[in-house]
Each structure stands twice: as structure tokens, then as C-alpha cells.
Amino acid sequence: MTQIAFVTYPGVTALDLVGPYEVLRHLPDADIRFVWRETGPIATDSNVLLLGATHTFGETPNPDIVVVPGGTPTVAVQARDQELLEWLRASISHCGSSHVSPARIVPRQYSSPSSTTRSRRSTRAARSRPHRR
């Protein structure tokens, strides 16, 4: 079994969690776990959609894969959560450095101002053009 832990924290962006889940759940022998301090419903960043934490940190001490999805602005708050940080450190340390492959994903709202500006200009320009058939 490949144990995959998705950190399901209050304020998580649902798409950042559900997108990777939809891909990873198809791995052979995947044991999917949505983890948090306690099991139960977790409100996403919209405060409308609820996701469920299926396992606690204690019930998932050594996952093979850990997914920490984004969330705005709560990701900054959760990044300082000591219980979460301790669990992440312990989860990663059991793998050994040869198995840890860090990834950096920068959400659009944190991308460079120039790329955002170009994107906005392109959108405005596209809207101002007459529609051609």
C-alpha cells in the first residue's frame, strides 16, 4: 500500500486538494488519507464547502506521500502551526533525504507583478477587440 496523506486544514483551497487527489487516487494500492488534528468536517476557504478529515496526524505517522495544498490567507497561519510542522518533519524524516523531492508551486496571486500586469493587459486587449467570425 502507498499511503498518501492530504493535509486538510481550515481554509484550504478545495481545488488545490481535490486536483491532486483525483490524480493520486488512481495509483495502484493507494491508501488515501485526509489528515488533520481531529477527524470531521473542515471548512474550505469559501466557508461554504466542507471537506472531511478522515484521519488524525497520530493515525498517519509515516505516509509515503504528503500533499500540502494551498489556501489564502490561512496558509500563512497554518505554516506556523506547531502540531502540523512537527508531524510534517516526522513524516518527511522517515523517508530519508533520497526520497524527499520538494516542489515549489507559486499561486497566481503571489506571482511577479509584471506577469500579472501582462496577463491583465492581454485580457483587456482581448475584450476590446471586435469579435470576428
Automatic annotation (TrEMBL):
InterPro entries (alphabetical): Class_I_gatase-like, INH-QAR
Disordered as annotated region, ranges: 95-133
Membrane-spanning intervals of the chain: none
GO BP terms: regulation of DNA-templated transcription
Gene3D superfamilies hit by this protein: 3.40.50.880
Sequence ranges of Basic residues compositional bias: 118-133
SUPFAM superfamilies associated with the record: Class I glutamine amidotransferase-like (SSF52317)
Record protein name field: DJ-1/PfpI domain-containing protein
Organism field: Gordonia soli NBRC 108243
